[in-house]
Design goal:
173 residues; alpha+beta; HIT family, subunit A; 2 domains; 4 helices; binds zinc ion
Length: 173
């Protein structure tokens, strides 16, 4: 299942690098890494080497999301977390360091000192209109591709999906 010896997460999956493995499932691991923002942070790690979110097969992504939800429950119940942040660093521009998709589940408490907050700025009408115009057409196309079950224009959909994945590949760290 693992195919990348240079990938830190693949070496964990292969058992060649130490990590606290809390759960070893068929498709993914739940681990506690030695490098974490706060004690109790869990990482949901698909065993398959998928570099970024867009490469992860839908079914695996659904399993990862469901597992992150369960990991969050564990943190609430066992560590008394008051909240959790579910974080995906998708692409180098978003701070992704290891080229292998993973979901971080971070336990939170009031006053824990973690600075994951950012202040949203109010978008002006122009900014909003321009952004919406830029994204609207692609949104219809891509959201239908990703989630629609029947694909009447199968050929066309597959080609544009490939094209989209190629674009996504440019973001691989
Ligand atoms: Zn990997």
């Amino acid at each position: 299942m693992t195919d990348n010896k240079a990938c830190e997460y693949c070496t964990i999956v292969a058992g060649e690098r130490n990590a606290e493995i809390l759960h070893d499932g068929e498709q993914l691991l739940v681990i506690a890494k030695d490098l974490a923002l706060i004690p109790g942070q869990l990482t949901v790690l698909p065993k398959e080497h998928c570099t970024i979110l867009e490469i992860v097969p839908e079914e695996l992504l659904a399993t990862a999301a469901s597992t992150a939800n369960k990991a969050s429950t564990i943190l609430f119940e066992q560590l008394g977390a008051q909240g959790t942040n579910i974080l995906v660093q998708n692409g180098t521009g978003a701070g992704q360091k290891v080229p292998h998709f993973a979901m971080e589940v971070i336990p939170r408490r009031e006053g824990d000192g973690l600075k994951l907050n950012w202040t949203p700025q109010t978008m002006g009408d122009d900014d909003l209109d321009i952004t919406a115009a830029q994204l609207k057409e692609a949104s219809d196309k891509i959201l239908q591709q990703k989630f629609k079950k029947e694909e009447p224009q199968k050929e066309e959909v597959n080609i544009s999906k490939e094209d989209y994945r190629l674009k996504a590949l440019r973001r691989i760290p």
